[in-house]
Amino acid sequence: MFDFEEEKKRFGEKCTACGLCVTACPIIPLTDIRGIDPAEVMASITNLYGGGRPNATARTRIYSCMGCLTCRPHCPEDLNPALGLALAASILVERGEPLPRALSFLLPETKFNLMKAVEAFQIKPDQRPWVTSVDRQRPSACNTVLFTGCTGIMQPDVVLTALDIIRRFDPTVRSLGGVDYCCGDTALRAGKPQAAKALFSKLVEALNDFSPEDVVFLCPTCKAYFDQYRPKTTWTAHFITRFLTEHLNDLGPFEEMDATVTVHDACHMVRGENPDLESPRHLIKAIPSIKVVEMTDSRENSLCCGATAMAAIGAPGVRFRARRLKQAEESGADVMALYCPACLSIFAAERARLPFRIESVITLLGKSMGIVHEDRLLHYMALGDPARVLSEAREYLQASELPQEMLVDFCSKYFKRG
């Protein structure tokens, strides 16, 4: 398995603070360190690795990182700067510095976890199509397991659609859900690399309990971690779009969908260990009458959704999201198609007021097959009225394991039209 301590040592020894990763970083121009010399910015990080005291520049560099991997090809030392910054966050944690508050709400151990809170408004615990405890629920063996990832539970309709599609050729398919199981990405971004590694090991053990032949990841970041760790398993790992592409002959027939679609690519899909630019487009093009157009920054040059920066430093991430949405509008597309549930959750707050639709590639494919599940998150966001959301979601909230008063307070902030 991947050794974070070894990588931390390597980064500390090899990073020369040349600043090329800062120059390549797409979000730095939106932060308060944009006027600082790139070499000086990275010197604040190498100083931290060398035992020096952190400063405001180092903190901004660390927590503004979106993990988008845009900088990686620019490093002359063949380092992964995004990973180096995540490990620099661990130095801050070791020194007792508090996490950015919003980032802490993403951690699996957080009682009032953001993803679980959004899930609570859409589905009752006994309606979940995914297993949340292999020890308690003891899943039966199956050929295929769909892993939702932690952000996947925020869109139950997408999970249900994916399961219905896979059932066309594998009626045994089961699903395992985050946040109870996690690839470890949020822990790593929060400066907890050993916790991240332990979470990934727990996930692999849980997937083994299904005795599957194939494990399908709904989240490209989860698949990227599998590619990085490369654990020994008896099953084969796939990303959902690649897996469905390999089974297209088992699906359909597909109904026509007269729409122009632009694809928002996920960072870890197009710049990860095993890049895949074509399978999402292949699925979309399987739908008759669909036209695909590209945004200004697309495929391997795709812009990030800004998720991690939004959680850690706020405003720069929000502005980065707006930049991406502007590109989608300028493409002239009717639909912005995504295949990453984290990206979908980040864009969710904007969907109701955009001149184009934002939908999962899985949702589009499902609709062309006659598979439709209600997108309650979109409905709630369109309402923009926390009181109405509370009224309509009452039966779900009453069944939730989360504290009612915290859900009410969360609703007043999350579903308020900004």
- What is the level 1 CATH name of the domain at 108-238? Alpha Beta
**CATH fold naming of the domain at 108-238:** Rossmann fold
Radius of gyration: 21 Å
Q: How does the major sheet shape up?
A: 4 strands, parallel
Structural class: alpha/beta
List the uncertain runs. none
Q: Under the CATH scheme, which architecture of the domain at 108-238 would be assigned?
A: 3-Layer(aba) Sandwich
Q: Give the overall average pLDDT.
A: 95
Based on the structure, what is the oligomeric state of the protein chains?
single chain
Strand content: 5-15%
Strand order of the largest sheet: 2-1-3-4
Number of beta strands: 8
Cα distance spanning the termini: 44 Å
Count of separate DSSP helical elements = 23
- The gross shape turns out to be globular
Helical percentage: 40-55%
